Amino acid sequence: MKKLLFPLFLVLLGVNAHAQQDFFAITGKNTQSIDFKDFRVINPTTGTSGAKIFTAESSPKIFSQSGRGIISENRNSYNNSQAVTMAALAYDPANNHLIYMPMFSSNIYVLNPHTGAIILVENTVAKVSSCDINSHITRMASGYDGNIYAVNNAGTQLLQISKEGGQYTVNDLGIIKDDPSNGRNSFTAMETGFGGDMVADSHNNFYIFSASGNVFKVSTKELKARFVGKIKGIPEHYSVNGAAVNEGGKVVVASAKGAPMYEVDMGSLQATKLPGEEGLHIYDLASKYFVNDRISSSVAMTDFDIYPTKVDEKYINVHMGKKSVKGSIKLNIYDMAGKNVMNDSFTIKEGAGDQKVFLRHLVSGAYIVNIMEESGKILFSKKIIITE
User: Fold this and answer.
1) Would you indicate the residue range of the signal peptide (predicted)?
2) Mean pLDDT for all residues in the chain
């Protein structure tokens, strides 16, 4: 029996190490106000912190996207990569980058956590004013479509940050308004809706957590925020400042006040306290996971489907319903520039089940998968994102 303990320990260690590599936090110093300390890895299972990636004392090289060269920044301003007012972070799994914005600044920074290199994305789209608390960007997350989304305190700007052809672009998607059913739980009011963080689900909806623990579901199509409920099981005056989804599809929330982290079930909004450190001042959390991703990828499929769409195991499954065509099927994969990067074909046999397709040499990034008849007629298309 003892011989099994060591291999089992290695397996469990490997699982935790994998989870820890894609869960990140902005932590701060033990002060009354916001005071950036570092970006670090977080283990969402044990509630403990890991390696520090980038700190307030780091000496970074900042590459300006618009200036096309290395620049120096004023460390005493709000417009720098190590500004003290840091509270919005997202993880871009397709490129393995951390995206963040200082609260009092319109600057967007892209950090490579392995090399420490930083790209400054200057833009005139984000309208952040240091004297207007409504305009401060406090929530940011990776969307299921591969873009990064950010929202200011009052919901008057929903930003979409995209990468195309090696360049980052920023779009203002509009103003998020309260759903009429919200009543007193207003998304746009300071006491019920400001601050906090956001996460995405597998349908590219967003759940925004206010600092007070209120949860709003936001549709990017309708630009409406619907009050879902208030987190249960956290202390009365707990300040929710960070939120990110773990591997199980649940949300981990954290506080800037040095309180413990909690795991929240999104169905019941019931929170369970995590073990680990209670002295961490966490301003934001980020991960590559999505609410209910594993559940939604395997149910409610139509005649055709491709799953998972977030690929981290080098294969996808092609689902064919009972009414689907029989015989030879072609599969073509294109990158976002339209280049054909992979072709495959297989024969559909009745009762054979879903077809597993290995992606072989494809690198991290977004792709379009086309399923076609032998004649070339496209039967189904879907976007996937390879994260490893």
Assistant:
1) 1-19
2) 86
How far apart CA 217 and CA 208 sit, in angstroms, is 6
Q: For the chain, give the longest Cα–Cα distance.
A: 67
State the pLDDT at residue 20: 55
Residue in 359, 198, 364 with CA at minimum distance from that of residue 290:
198
Is 200 within 8 Å of 291 (Cβ atoms)?
yes
CA distance 320 to 247: 27
* Token output for 50: 């890991």
The pairing of beta strand 224-230 with beta strand 214-219: antiparallel
Cβ atoms of residues 59 and 73 within 8 Å: no
Tell me what pLDDT residue 209 has: 98
CA 126 to chain CA mean position, Å: 19
pLDDT-based confidence at residue 94 (cuts at 50, 70, 90) = confident
Domains of the chain, with CATH numbers? Answer: 23-287 (2.120.10), 304-386 (2.60.40.1930)
Q: Residue 264 contacts by C-beta under 8 Å, 6 or more apart in sequence? A: 231, 250, 251, 252, 253, 270, 271, 272
* 5: pLDDT strictly greater than 70: no
- 363 Rama sector, left if φ>0, alpha if ψ -120 to 50, beta otherwise: beta
pLDDT for residue 367 is more than 80: yes
What tokens appear for 269 in the block? 């909004």
State CA 357 to chain mean position distance.
Answer: 26
Mention every residue, 6+ apart, whose C-beta is less than 8 A from residue 341: 333, 334, 335, 362, 367
Residue 130's pLDDT is 86
Q: What is the number of other CB atoms lying within 10 angstroms of the CB of residue 26?
A: 27
pLDDT at residue 171 tops 60? yes
